[in-house]
Specification:
about 625 residues; alpha/beta; Glutamine Phosphoribosylpyrophosphate, subunit 1, domain 1; Rossmann fold; 3 domains; eight-stranded antiparallel sheet; 19 helices; globular; binds 5-amino-5-deoxy-1-O-phosphono-D-mannitol; glutamine amidotransferase; transferase; cytoplasm; repeat
Length: about 625
């Protein structure tokens, strides 16, 4: 949710932290702030986007800094509630990501001790507790012991960075259920919610476990447990570079990411099929385990959930076992029936989403095998799963998911084929044939990117619409849901996706003159009945005055006369069609967003890239 940076080294901390926050702003952007520790603590913080902070920056010399970009949980986005928070004596500062669940009694304790709290946040208590622990009692004068004492009192999920004026040469940080990565430079050390914070300076990073504390100085880092005993981080090398985190000539990250989709799908497929067989990544789930699986549960949120709906269609069709799909936040609250023959497929771009993580934990307590589909190496969801299949979409900065979604669909299909292979429900030549059509997809997406101009023209003609409906049947239904979600996120207008067959059961009442309705049409070469039924649906809505925006396979003449706008996509097999049909809807959402006055499609209001609170 929030983005955090910490730095100890030789560079000026203020400018370094500002740059890092710029690259992490996608994580939260309702306020931001930086504290520089130069033997005294200076703080600057401001509500609103980072540009507001930049406008008020003064000179704050010092080579140790912590910074924060916020997605509000407790307390409105105001200057006071922005991080860093400074202790009552002005000697300590903290930044926090997560929720301190027991903040209310801690706050009361501070108030009773005569300390004035300056914000409505759950986070501020940590700064005052640190100063109290440092100023008096057993831990007096000992920064590390004071930080550990504070951590021992906190409940909830948090990444916390502590800095103290008496120790300008170090930062102490901790994590519980929220992300924190250490960057290892030469004569300088970094902390970040993700590697984008420091990728410009080093590719050497260290992953931490849950309930780890790390102390960084210029010369190195030390990892501890919350009880102060020694622990170890896991060093790794970052395999993407700064260019991947920058816009590369596009006017938004989202546009760049839409254009990166051919590569995202191609790279995700890479290496998973050779010698006539499908391979998953290394995992603790053996071929024998896979063979014994008799049901699948898919858990995910948002776009990842929509990709999971497609996993359901593919797995049930190819493997002939039941697949249930559940929004992750609902999964564990309804006592799903799982056992050791259940495979739980947990899909998450960030690998941090709290609801999905909790669903994974619940599934494991029930003895199910968990396979994560994830885009972020070393993140929590894959780490707690029995196996992971990484999507290789590269960093996705735009808050609205595009390339990660398509890469998830491709990865889900790999899982489906691996299951079909293990359970023998498809012959090797059938698997090879499906794989061949999957491998053709990146080139077809490439071709389809030219649709951008057509979509911009349609958005131009539609103007600032108030509401839009999206209809699909079969695998077109998740595409309709994803198209509607993109539009809600980006244009802030009402949009809904329906199975086209449901139209007559209620939603048709919404149709009125000029209402734009997107219809995703299945291939005429697939199930004939499905195609003809949707053609009838298009006629029904046209007859009631709607403007139809029809996404159909090239050469599908049956739909032409009923389409106000016809968007033709390359031919492919039915199950692969969502990998293509989604693309024009991504462009449409971005273009309508502009018509509706949202210029910053990378950072839609109220959202954050990864949702690390339940
Ligand atoms: O990181 P995750 O894939 O777990 O995130 C899940 C959703 O929060 C995410 O897909 C969200 O719905 C996107 N903003 C959709 O564009």
């Amino acid at each position: 949710m929030c983005g955090i940076v910490g730095y100890v080294g030789e560079r000026q901390g203020l400018s370094l932290a500002l740059e890092a926050l710029r690259r992490m702003e996608y994580r939260g952007y309702d306020s931001s702030g930086i504290a520089v520790n130069n033997g005294g603590i200076s703080v600057v913080k401001k509500a609103g986007k980072l540009a507001n902070l930049e406008a008020v920056l003064g000179d704050m010399p010092g080579t140790t800094a912590i910074g924060h970009t916020r997605w509000a949980t407790h307390g409105r986005p105001t200057d006071e509630n922005a991080h860093p928070h400074v202790s009552f004596d002005g000697r300590a500062a903290i930044v926090h990501n997560g929720i301190i669940e027991n903040f209310a009694p801690l706050r009361q304790e501070l108030v009773d001790a005569g300390i004035t709290l300056n914000s409505d946040t759950d986070s501020e208590v940590a700064a005052h507790l640190l100063a109290r622990a440092y100023n008096e009692g057993e831990t007096a004068g000992d920064f590390r012991a004071s930080a550990l004492a504070v951590l021992g009192r906190l409940e909830g999920a948090f990444t916390l960075l502590f800095t103290h004026a008496d120790h300008p040469d170090q930062i102490i940080a901790a994590r519980r259920s929220t992300p924190l990565i250490v960057g290892v430079g030469e004569g300088e050390m970094f902390l970040g919610s993700d590697v984008a914070a420091f990728i410009e300076y080093t590719k050497n990073a260290v992953e931490l476990d849950q309930d780890n504390v790390v102390v960084i100085t210029r010369d190195g880092y030390e990892v501890l447990n919350f009880d102060g005993t020694a622990a170890e981080g896991r060093p790794f090398t970052i395999d993407w570079d700064l260019a991947a985190a920058e816009k590369g000539g596009f006017d938004s990250f989202m546009m760049k990411e839409i254009h990166e989709q051919p590569a995202a799908v191609r790279d995700t497929l890479g290496g998973h099929f050779h010698d006539g067989r499908v391979f998953l990544d290394e995992s603790d789930i053996s071929e024998t385990d896979l063979k014994s699986i008799n049901q699948v549960f898919v858990v995910a949120c948002g776009s990842a959930y929509h990709s999971g709906l497609l996993a359901k269609y593919a797995i049930e069709h190819w493997v002939r076992i039941p697949v249930q799909i559940e929004v992750a936040s609902e999964f564990r609250y309804r006592d799903p029936v799982l056992d050791e023959r259940t495979l739980v497929l947990a899909i998450s771009q960030s690998g941090e989403t709290a609801d999905t993580l909790e669903a994974v934990r619940h599934a494991k307590t029930q003895g199910a095998k968990v396979l994560a589909v994830c885009n972020t190496n070393g993140s929590q969801i894959p780490r707690e799963s029995d196996a992971v299949l990484y999507t290789h979409a590269g960093p996705e900065i735009g808050v609205a998911s595009t390339k990660a979604f398509l890469a998830q669909v491709a990865a889900n299909y790999i899982v489906g084929l691996a299951l079909a292979q293990a359970k023998g429900t498809k012959y090797p030549d059938e698997i090879a044939e499906i794989w061949a059509s999957l491998e053709e997809i990146p080139a077809k997406i490439e071709e389809l990117l030219d649709v951008r101009e057509q979509m911009a023209g349609i958005a131009d003609e539609l103007g600032a619409v108030q509401t839009m409906l999206f209809l699909g049947r079969g695998v077109g239904f998740p595409v309709a849901l994803e198209g509607a979600l993109k539009l809600k996120e980006l244009a802030y207008i009402h949009a809904e996706g329906f199975p086209a067959g449901e139209l007559k059961h209620g939603p048709i009442a919404l149709i009125e003159d000029d209402l734009p309705v997107v219809v995703v049409v299945p291939s005429p070469r697939g199930v004939k009945l499905l195609h003809s039924k949707i053609v009838s649906n298009i006629q029904e809505i046209r007859a009631r005055g709607a403007q139809t925006i029809v996404i159909a396979e090239e050469g599908d003449e049956a739909v032409r006369e009923f389409a106000n706008y016809l968007i033709e996509i390359p031919a492919t097999s039915s199950i692969m069609q969502p990998l293509l049909a989604t693309v024009p809807l991504q462009f449409l959402a971005a273009d309508i967003a502009r018509e509706c006055g949202n210029e910053d499609i990378d950072k839609p209001r109220n959202l954050a890239k990864s949702v690390t609170v339940e």
